Structures are given as C-alpha cells and as structure tokens.
Amino acid sequence: MSESQPEFPPTAPLDDNALNQLFRQARTATEWAARPVERETLVALYDLVKLGPTSGNCSPARFVFLTADDMKERLRSALSAGNVERCLTAPVIVLVCHDPLFFEHLPRLSREDNLRNWFAADVGLSEETAFRNGSLQGGYLLMAARALGLSVAPFSGFDAYSIEDIFLADTGWRVNFIVGLGYADAPPRQERAMRLGFDEACLVL
C-alpha cells in the first residue's frame, strides 16, 4: 500500500484523550474568553462538517457565522431573555439553517439519477429531509468544533421568524438552532446534569 493511502476503513478507536475532549469532559460553554475565532478556523470547521453523511448526500445544512458586533446585536431582539448575555458574548454565533431547496444541488452532489426531481415533486418529503439532515449536520458542527479545540453552546430559545426576516430573507433558508462558538473562559459552575442510563434509553433487539 502506498504511504499516501491510509488504511481504510480505520479500525482503531479514538484514545481516551480524544474521547474526553469530544464527550466525557466536554461541557456547554457558559463564559467566553476574549480570544477570537479566526476565519481560517471557521473554514476548517466547515470542511469537517461537510464530510459527515447525509441522505443521498443531500447536504441541506447552511451556516451563517455572525462575527461582527453589529451583526450579533441585530440578533438580540429575537433571543429569549435568558439567552441574550451568554449568546451575544460568544466570539461567533452560528445560525444553523437548512435550505428547503437543497435538491437543486443534487445533480452535482448525488450519483443517483433523477433524485432532484423526486424531491422537487414532493414538498412534504423534501421539507422532512431538509430538517432531519440539517439537524444531523448541526450535530456534526458541535462535535467538529470540539475536535478543533473550540467550545460550543447550543441555543433553542429564539423567534425563528424574526431571525429569518433579519438574516435570511434573501436566501430562503430556515433557521433550526443557534450555536455560540469560541473558547471557554472558565469551567461550568454546575456539575454535569444527570443522563439516562443505557437500560432506560436503549433497546437491543
């Protein structure tokens, strides 16, 4: 095998340091350091996110990175009161969106013939597919950010219609949830909340 071609598929699990960074010790950020998130980091982040699998490679997620103070301030009126301070102080605010017309890109993205027309003819199916896979890609964003050493804080308390009117009117995109992105300034003040055990949340059939 050529040195330029790694073994595929990879078979070794991640080591404990990586698992700690992604899951075990990772916590939702509550306070942000002043350290900026550079554009190059955002590009690297998306370049990881886009590699995650979606149905038929439909890739419906769209991401709006708010980095300028005046752009973040425009978000204030759409946020629930409890989210304002922690969200607006994040170095980057990400609007995790999806494109209802994602299927227009399928002739370029998918190897399946006529997939674009299949989705275009069924509004319910295309909306469901866009939301499900856009949510999936939003999850990839959280984990990819942690993998790059960033901290994240997802938010769901907001007025979606206001956000779409302020930021997305020219795109037709729909907002799903918001993510604060940056570097945590301090450990969380509270212990990690309880999680359900395997036997409570899982079935093995």
UniProtKB/TrEMBL annotation:
Family matches, as SUPFAM superfamilies: FMN-dependent nitroreductase-like
InterPro entries: Nitroreductase-like, Nitroreductase_HadB/RutE
Superkingdom of source: Bacteria
Protein name as catalogued: NADH dehydrogenase
